[in-house]
Amino acid sequence: MAANGTNDRGEERSLPAGAKATAARPIVVDRLTHEDVNDVCALFRRVWEGFRNDLPNELIKAWEPSPLEFTSWMEGVTYFATRREGKLVGVVGASMVDGSCRLVNLVVDPDARRQGYATALTASAIEWAKHNGSRSVWVDALAKFTGAVAVFRNLGFSEAGVLHKHFWDEDVRLLEKLL
Ligand SMILES: CC(C)(COP(=O)(O)OP(=O)(O)OC[C@H]1O[C@@H](n2cnc3c(N)ncnc32)[C@H](O)[C@@H]1OP(=O)(O)O)[C@@H](O)C(=O)NCCC(=O)NCCS
């Protein structure tokens, strides 16, 4: 393991920088596998259920993939996962596009929020990006997702702009972190 907790292939990272963890509840981030597909689809449903009154139906539909759809999302995207007592509670995807790393689909179970899971997932994806020679990491987030923006800003991302009415009328913020 490297000093930062990533193995030399960037595959696993426990206690990433900035993650909240205790000896009793360490946060471990590993790779999502095809065996997790049903669980990750259930996680997306739990997360977006809470937004039914706040987001366009088209958007909710697009972000609640079937197992078959999620399997195709996994093509070319490395998904990181974190679990609590064996249950999947968070994921984020990372993919290399034109030499920079794009993060997608960061979610944490509503029952597991403000415990450092998103921070741990994102920190692991950043380490993976560095390991893959990326010069920057970027992400788009709905402007109204202030919690997500706070997570990224805490990890050193800065706001690079806004795409107006980008996702079914919703404004989207672009955030980037240079590596
Ligand atoms: C955004 C989200 C991923 C955050 O997950 P999380 O595991 O709760 O985040 P963390 O515990 O790592 O948060 C780290 C810090 O970010 C900030 N933060 C996180 N959520 C916040 C919120 N809702 N409001 C304000 N600040 C927030 C805080 O500074 C927090 O530290 P603190 O708890 O000590 O105050 C989660 O709320 C979620 O899944 N939301 C719905 C989906 C979503 O917005 N996805 C992002 C798409 S880009």
Subunit arrangement of the protein: single chain
Number of domains: 1
Strand order of the largest sheet: 1-2-3-4-5-6-8-7
**Ends: how far apart?**
21 Å
So how many helices? Answer: 5
Average pLDDT taken over every residue: 90
pLDDT under 50 segments (min length 5)?
1-13
Helix-residue proportion:
25-40%
The radius of gyration over CA amounts to 15 Å
Give every kind of bound small molecule, once each.
coenzyme A
Under the CATH scheme, the architecture is 3-Layer(aba) Sandwich
Order of helices and strands: EEHHHEEEHEHEE
**CATH level-3 fold name:** Aminopeptidase
Shape: globular
User: Which CATH C-level class is it?
Assistant: Alpha Beta
Category by helix and strand content: alpha+beta
The biggest sheet amounts to: 8 strands, mixed
- Strand tally is 8
CATH superfamily: Gcn5-related N-acetyltransferase (GNAT)
Beta-sheet strand percentage?
Answer: 25-35%
Please, could you describe this protein's structure?
There is one protein chain. The chain has one domain: Gcn5-related N-acetyltransferase (GNAT) (Aminopeptidase). The chain has an eight-stranded mixed sheet, sandwiched between helices. The N terminus is likely disordered. Helices cover 28% and strands 33% of the residues. Coenzyme A binds next to strand 5, helix 4, strand 6 and helix 5.
